[in-house]
Amino acid sequence: MKLSYLTLVVLLAFTSCSSSSDETPEPITNANIIGSVNLYDEGVRQIDNSDMTVKIEGSSPLISTNTDVNGNYTLADVPFGTYTLVYTKTGFGTFKKFGIEHRNTGSSTIITEAPSLGEVSSTQITDLQVNTSGEDILLAITTDPAGSNGNRRYVRYFLGSDSNVSNENYAYHSPGLISQINPFETTLSKSDLISAGFSSGETVYVKAYGDSFWSNEYDDPDLNRKVFPNLNATSANAVSFVVP
Fold this sequence. Notes:
Layout: H1 2-22, E1 30-36, E2 38-40, E3 53-56, E4 64-66, E5 72-79, E6 81-88, E7 95-102, E8 109-110, E9 116-118, E10 124-133, E11 136-144, E12 153-160, E13 172-173, E14 177-179, E15 184-189, H2 190-195, E16 203-211, E17 218-220, E18 225-227, E19 239-242
Parallel strand pairs: 1-8, 2-9
Antiparallel strand pairs: 1-5, 3-4, 3-6, 6-7, 10-11, 11-15, 12-13, 12-14, 12-16, 16-19, 17-18
């Protein structure tokens, strides 16, 4: 009887150990996404990096966090997948990063490129004039506040064949331009306009906006255009010219 009991104990112990060692570990299905931002005023002065909200667009339940004083953030326990990150803070234009691939690599996904994001522009466009000089188009953009050597203002203009041209409806956009005189003047040559896709004799409409040094611009594949979140919506009416 004693031998049988001992044999039973040994068998149970062996079965228990064998079952434990054969168990398959649960698969890893999520990990952290880590990144950082650098925040600026509408010019080039760096400011407090904290309290910018970073969230995963469309996540349910919402996956979101805030940056710390150094601009660092961690989105915790994110299921593996491909995501769009949305960056927001009061006074800042919304910024998005598309196509963030969050894979099971055995560690966190680290976004190495830290975006530099600026506040929304306080520059209003109060007047926009256009004149022709030979084969050149001269734009005169008046801002409030006025640009000067000690108070740089930033502007951007948009061109289109539609009288409703805007930052959301355009065929061409300028780079960010620095205004240090009022009105700010810039020249578009005939070759510039041809390169932008317009034709001689075509009527082109132009609209200008105040912008920030860091425009928070991004390419939106859903809208199929570049988005400029930091533009000041207060702007003079669009004007037109005919391509020489």
